[in-house]
Amino acid sequence: MPGILETARAVRAGEQSAEQLARGHLDRIARFDGALGAFLRVDAEGALAAANTVDRRIARDRSAKGEEELARELPLAGITVGVKDVLTTRGLRTTCGSRILENYVPPYDAHVVERLRAAGAVIVGKTNMDEFAMGSSTENSAYFPTRNPWDRTRAPGGSSGGSAAAVAADFCDVSLGTDTGGSVRQPASLTGTVGLKPTYGRVSRYGLIAFASSLDVVGPFGGTVADTALLYSVVAGHDARDSTSVPQPVAPYDLSRGPDALRGLRVGVPAEYFAEGLEPEVAASVRATIDRVARAGAEIVELSMPHTRYGIAAYYVLAPAEASSNLARFDGVRYGVRRDGPRGSLDEMYGATRDHGFGAEVKRRIILGTFALSEGYYDAFYGKAQKVRTLIREDFVRAFERVDALFTPTSPTTAFPLGERTDDPVAMYLADVCTLPPSLAGVPAISVPCGRDGRGLPIGLQIVMPAFHEAQLLAVAHGVEALIGSIGKPTLTV
Amino acid sequence: MADSPRSFDVPRVAALARLTLEPGEADRFAPQLARILGYISQLDELDTAAIQPTSHVVPLTTPLRVDSVHAGLPRDEALSQAPRVSDGAFVVPKFVEGA
User: Fold this and answer.
1) Under a CB-based contact definition with an 8 Å cutoff, are residues A197 and A179 in contact?
2) Which listed site, A378, A463, B80, B94, has its alpha carbon 20 to 30 Å from A75?
């Protein structure tokens, strides 16, 4: 299969039609997604219209503008993209996987969606997710769970499980997800795809329906590091509409070195990421990958990041606290659904609307977050967790004084059976043990497939680097991918 | 430092969040939330008396955008998603007594 760089070039050269490419993916979705549930909404009409516009523009401009100029204007010409339903799409219903937004049609595009459209990409639909991105299995979607293309009895991870499954199943070339505590990396690991969480602030959050604003990041999924990198380069960059968007320019990446990118690289292996709860096959696969990286010329440094194990506890104070504040906007007044109470009062309307609109996990987190911020408990919970966040950040600062990159498992387990953890919130939270600390530290991290377990399920390697080192991170991930080779693709059946 | 509490009054906190719970939901959530609080209490193991809190990971200077006029959302579009609208305004139940 050609990468999206080559596909977009062929579309710009008139060798392939964006419309034909879109039809191919739409047909595949129609045929197979009934059994997977990767998409909440497929926008065939919008996708074909966008593809036609791209084809017409290229036919018009191809002779006047050279490939170089056209490539700058349309880096994703004809590339099909799935967009997580937490990102607003003008005129295309956006539910956040929640009942409370079941009828919401955004009057504006998210910044990243604007960038996709301008780059000539074709949005094929909105992908399934845990409600308001709260979950690690996509089973908290108010609509239906997504199934893992490698084994339909298992979860694809979450919360961006729809975006991950869509790429794994080849329903679209690439997709966008969001990552607050691991919601891009963990589903990438469980579906054998590549998923990048950029540095906090590197990608605009404008039009990303907020969950935990100090942690939320938009991240790309691809079948390969190269595809993921190209999508990243299109969506990253400053946007004045997000006050936490970072103004420094996006460094260009270079994947030409292959495994040579690993030569001389100082790789840190933190002992705490290989602690209890890690499946032996996952540990063995990640260790074997690290051995191969060493043989390719990297220097391996065993080290300790002592506050790692407090990441989950700190996160499950901070994220629900921020969520309880962010989700206050869903009150039945400006958008979404409304339910009235028996006596018709305003307070009853708020309560009834939110009871009807929110699922159990969202309610639990709003209650937990409200408690953590309530009078008399703020210091013991929110303040305490913010201080522990400092300790976790400092673990990374110290580690990056000694090494260039950290190699860890992405998820302690491979894909788990649907329903296995839905009644036990803490068991579900443990899925994020390896991905939460980089989120709390705000540093970029990527999950790359590194093998499969005895059941044939994908295993992911997480690579973490210092803030704004995405270009280096992508080169290192590409080096690992070149060493490992493809882990294969799932076979779909109807 | 004192240990953090392991349980709380779920209906009272839900009311603070303007969240009406379904019958039985508070009883179902209480043990789950207690288990989560129990897990969170491991933060008490760390002495953080001398540690500064992190509220944002990226050092933020308040950036100023260019002060130029540009179109916002037209009013009709801004109101298009509201459950109830009248005379170009959002409609909510009456909440001022005697008005």
Assistant:
1) yes
2) A463
Whether A350 sits inside 8 A of B18 (CB atoms) is yes
Please name the fold of domain B9-45: Histone, subunit A (1.10.20)
Whole-structure pTM value: 0.97
CATH number, span A4-257+474-484: 3.90.1300.10
Residues of A in contact with B77 (CB under 8 A): 107
d(CA A188, CA A198): 14
Give chain A positions within 8 Å (CB) of B94.
Answer: 346
Among B17, B56, B82, the residue with its CB nearest the CB of A324 is B17
Q: What angle do CA A480, A481, A485 make, to 5 degrees?
A: 125
- Phi and psi, residue A278, nearest 5°: -80, 125
Distance of CA A404 to the CA centre of its chain: 23
Contact between A467 and B55 using a beta-carbon 8 Å cutoff: no
Q: Which residues contact A104 (CB under 8 A, 6 or more apart)?
A: A93, A94, A95, A335, A336, B81
Residue for token pair 């997000």: A242
Query: Are A211 and A134 spatial neighbours (Cβ–Cβ below 8 Å)?
Result: yes
Cα–Cα distance for residue pair A35/A152, rounded to 1 Å: 8
Q: With beta carbons under 8 A apart, name residues in chain B contacting A400.
A: none
Q: What are the sequence ranges of the domains in chain A?
A: 4-257+474-484
* Residues 22 through 61 of chain B touching chain A, CB cutoff 8 Å: 22, 25, 29, 32-33, 35-37, 39-44, 46, 48, 51-58, 60
Tens of each residue's pLDDT in chain A, 494 residues: 789 999 999 999 999 999 999 999 999 999 999 999 999 999 999 999 999 999 999 999 999 999 999 999 999 999 999 999 999 999 999 999 999 999 999 999 999 999 999 999 999 999 999 999 999 999 999 999 999 999 999 999 999 999 999 999 999 999 999 999 999 999 999 999 999 999 999 999 999 999 999 999 999 999 999 999 999 999 999 999 998 999 899 999 999 999 999 999 999 999 999 988 899 999 999 999 999 999 999 999 999 999 999 999 999 999 999 999 999 999 999 999 999 999 999 999 999 999 999 999 999 999 999 999 998 999 999 999 999 999 999 999 999 999 999 999 999 999 999 999 988 888 888 889 999 999 999 999 999 999 999 999 999 999 999 999 999 999 999 999 999 999 999 999 88
Q: Encoding tokens for residue A361?
A: 């996990």
